[in-house]
Amino acid sequence: MKTINYVLTGLGGQGILFMTKVLATAALDKGYNILGAETHGMAQRGGSVVSHLRIGDARSSLIRAGAADFLLSMDESEAYRYLPYLKKGGKLFANAPSNQFPDERTAAYLEGQNIKTWAMEAAKTAMAMGSSKSTNLAMVAFYAAFDVGPLSAADLRMTVDKMSPGPFNRTNLKIFDACYETGKQMAMGN
User: Fold this and answer.
1) 173 CB neighbour count, 10 Å cutoff
2) 59-83 pLDDT, tens digit each
3) Helix segments in 37-165, DSSP class H
4) Minimal CA–CA distance to 186: which of 156, 149, 150, 143?
5) Which residue of 14, 49, 72, 80 is 20 to 30 Å from 133, comparing CA positions?
6) Confidence at residue 183, expressed as pLDDT on a 0 to 100 scale
7) CA angle, 41 as apex, 59 and 159 as ends, to 5°?
């Protein structure tokens, strides 16, 4: 299979590595080869965290600028910072207000690169559903709703179900389902 490249970004404590683990586990369960790498800035102090995940027959774990198929960002500022990683025609999913993302300065660049963007306030949704720590799962579900990439929503939901500890399982699946539905509504509108 052609290698599919994901760059996942955010700030320390937002669960970037867990998001990567969900995607990687779902890929492994489907029999795909994976390679990954994480880079941490001042993660413990809310600094930048970046994770690279390559699904397919990649030879290196790091993704070069202009080669990522997908950018999933838990933080709006980090989404802008890591835009250069997306290839022409790439797709960006951000934890940001959908009616304000992307900002005017960035919209022209994205259009010129044919990069599609979708945003959802995943943190607000997770908090409203009783688990602010599940914002990362909210973003995975939101991404899954657009049916792009090698992993289906069913693959990702099954992985979340399998990886969620007993007392959090029900809440995590409830958040996954709600954010998947939010994404589906947006996908039908595009």
Assistant:
1) 16
2) 888 899 999 999 999 999 999 999 9
3) 76-81, 104-112, 122-128, 135-144, 153-163
4) 143
5) 80
6) 94
7) 55
* pLDDT single digits (tens) 129-149: 878 788 899 999 999 999 999
Tokens of 183: 């994404």
124: left (phi over 0), alpha (psi -120 to 50) or beta: alpha
Q: How many residues does the chain have?
A: 190
Q: Which pair of structure tokens corresponds to residue 130?
A: 């009783």
Report whether 183 contacts 143 (CB < 8 A).
Answer: yes
The pLDDT value given to residue 48: 83
Q: Cis link prior to 165 (omega < 30° from 0)?
A: no
Q: Taking Cα atoms as reference points, which of 35, 38, 37, 39 lies closest to residue 4?
A: 35
Beta carbons within 10 angstroms of residue 149's beta carbon? 17
What is the per-residue burial (b if ≥16 Cβ within 10 Å, else e) of 51-66? bbbbbeebeeeebeee
Q: Where are the alpha helices (DSSP H) in the chain?
A: 16-29, 76-81, 104-112, 122-128, 135-144, 153-163, 166-189
CATH superfamily, domain at 4-189: Pyruvate-ferredoxin oxidoreductase, PFOR, domain III (3.40.920.10)
Distances (CA, A) of 97 to 66, 68, 103, 119, 174: 25, 23, 11, 6, 21
